[in-house]
Amino acid sequence: MRLALDEAEKAAQAGEVPIGALIYDPSSKTIVSSAKNAPISLNDPSAHAEILALRAAGQVVGNYRLTDLWLYVTLEPCAMCAGALSHARIGRVIYGASDPKGGAVANGPRFFAQPTCHWAPEVTGGVLEAETGQVLKDFFRQKRKPRGRPAEGGQDA
Description:
With about 160 residues, the chain is α/β, with parallel strands linked by helices. It has helices at about 1-15, 40, 50-60, 80-90, 130-145, and strands at about 20-25, 30-35, 70-75, 90-95, 120-125.
């Protein structure tokens, strides 16, 4: 998860929402791929860290099925990402912070628990939850920080 946090920090430095992900092969104990959130820089609404990590892992493995691999991600996956993880047959999902508003694993639609879900990975949530959540809080606090006040009369100086 610490390596996923490194990717999240890279995303924040690029002005993206700080979410990082990596695909891990537990049998060889190697990282297959890693990615940071990039929808803004790639002009692609599907460029979530999880999706980019899945795409890269598929290329490395030479297969779109990633059954024995694990995904580490700093935030609970959304519905789009949960669907992609199900289609990839990812073996396990490990996430940091819960996302009550946009999450789809433990919150919201609980994608993997739906009868229409064809593949449900093992899920572990809350790994380094305080740290992963703080990265997001700090990012949004900085984004919402006042930029300065206009001079009297409503005109910028």
